[in-house]
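To illustrate the input format used throughout this study, we show a single complete record. The first block contains the structure-token representation of the backbone; no residue identities are included at this stage. The design step must infer an amino acid for every position from geometry alone.
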């Protein structure tokens, strides 16, 4: 191979590495371009929806129970949730194509949520530290669903099994801390978590027969596990 060909091959390899390394940035850029209109016209509506979602996701401050839906807000039907899943799956598939990332997309319904999961690929860059990139992509996906349906959505996006594993880890943590509090008789505060994560811990603590509450303000809001009495 000539020197010119070697130089060309090296250049192509370098460009390939740069593309792979910036895949998450490409995906975020694509999402921003696709959602410009929605962000300009509907951000206020979705910001309000996100605040309501935190209230619904977070546990009741005394016993970890879900807060009820607003009386004038009908629960989504199974057909509605399946439609949300289909819209979200199409949206996420489009973003993956633009960013040249591989992954299979699964759709499911979990209670009153549509769940879309990207599986079968290593997509750590789309999860980010502590799931921060994943949370941002989830909000963009919810925005895309809202733009088509006109209704708020509590859709959940999972990538590479991150949320499923996080749920298992937090359930185990909640049970473990509950046992510790039973043994010591002293309350214990956990690290700061988002509303979804706090809800999982509250449920695990309640299942262990103890009470928990949330204290502080986001993003530093945390669960405190309380002893009996």
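Output of the design step:
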């Amino acid at each position: 191979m000539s020197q010119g060909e070697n130089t060309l091959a090296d250049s192509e390899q370098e460009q390939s590495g740069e593309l792979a390394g910036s895949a998450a940035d490409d995906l975020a850029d694509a999402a921003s371009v696709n959602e410009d209109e929605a962000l300009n016209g509907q951000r206020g509506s979705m910001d309000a929806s996100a605040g309501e979602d935190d209230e619904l996701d977070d546990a009741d401050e005394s016993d970890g129970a879900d807060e009820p839906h607003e009386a004038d807000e009908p629960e989504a039907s199974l057909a509605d949730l399946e439609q949300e899943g289909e819209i979200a799956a199409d949206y996420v598939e489009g973003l993956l194509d633009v960013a040249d990332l591989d992954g299979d997309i699964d759709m499911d319904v979990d209670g009153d949520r549509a769940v879309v999961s990207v599986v079968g690929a290593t997509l750590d860059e789309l999860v980010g530290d502590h799931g921060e990139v994943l949370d941002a992509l989830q909000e963009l996906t919810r925005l895309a669903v809202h733009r088509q349906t006109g209704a708020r959505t509590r859709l959940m996006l999972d990538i590479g099994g991150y949320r499923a594993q996080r749920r298992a880890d937090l359930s185990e943590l909640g049970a473990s801390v509950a046992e510790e509090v039973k043994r010591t008789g002293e309350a214990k505060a956990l690290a700061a978590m988002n509303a979804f994560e706090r809800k999982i811990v509250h449920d695990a603590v309640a299942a262990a027969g103890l009470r928990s509450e949330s204290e502080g303000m986001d993003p530093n809001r945390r669960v405190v596990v309380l002893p009996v009495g």
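Structural context for interpreting the output: Residues 4-23, 33-72 have pLDDT under 50 and may be disordered. The first strand starts at residue 104 and ends at 110.
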